[in-house]
Amino acid sequence: MAHFGDRVRLIEVLVRQGHPGPEVPCYGNFEQKLRDGYRYKELEGIPWTVLVDDLRGTVHQAYGSLADPTYLIDNDGRVAYYNVWTHVPTLFRAVQALLAREGRGVVLGGVDRKPHFGATLTNGWPALRRGLPQSAVDLETSVPLSAVGPWLGYQLRPLLAPLTLRERPLPRAAKAALGAAAVAAIMFGVRRALRGAAEATEAGNDAATGDNRSNGAAVPRAQPLVARVPAGVPREAAELVARGWLSPGAT
Amino acid sequence: MRIPDVTQRLNALEQAESAERYNYRHFRPRLVTGEVVKTIEARGIVPGEPAPDFELPMVGGGSWRLARHLNPPILLRFGSFS
Lengths: 251, 82
Known about the structure:
Chain A has 251 residues and is mainly α. Chain A is built from ten helices and five strands.
């Protein structure tokens, strides 16, 4: 939020271990937690103020005990807005809206409960890595692929970061282009799937009519069953003959 | 304006957890379920209500109290080391 300078103040409260592990066990006393506060600020290179909640998480629990929230508090000390799942571009818009009304009141409807996981997928691995192997095993057991996702996202960080770790909201034209690309990708996938299904059906028909592909010879497309029966034979009887349920002489 | 204290608010919460339960040893599916419910119900402070006041130790020394820093607006984030 460097864009806003000193017109907004960022404060972070360190809460419980989200994904405990052998090197980062759940807190048993406040000294452990305070020590992690110092490590957290140093390892993550955090320039803003970091506070350390008490062992019971009194502040965290009083503010809803959410996993990844950020509140925007106005000049009167009231909640102007909050993300249930932190999303910086949305907060950017909320701060802009709050400053436009002299720092008071509820903005953008007050709450955003959308599960924004893009930043966590791209940048969540370093925190999860601290608790390995237990953190990943616990997470995968609870939600399959939820540990693999951040690992993969972290490997692809240079590619994803411009999209998932941006500070400002995407311009409308970029959103429209991304939407169009997503629709095109879905349509491409659907067409591929339909074509695959059609080919599988065709192969099944060939097998039913006795075509043999094992000799490597070019196989002609399967003809409709009725078309192979001599002309002049009633259509229903022709179908029965073709299926081998009726001898040709019987027609 | 009277600003409620976090301790008052915590004591009034039905879902308040003990230190042992709050500091879980393993991340379990019940936590995922809990987060889904909290997301759907948006279980944070209702927008427009006073943000509960608190005072906590700062990394680097000293303490920080919300009620003393109300202008300019504050982005209050909750983060974890792991």
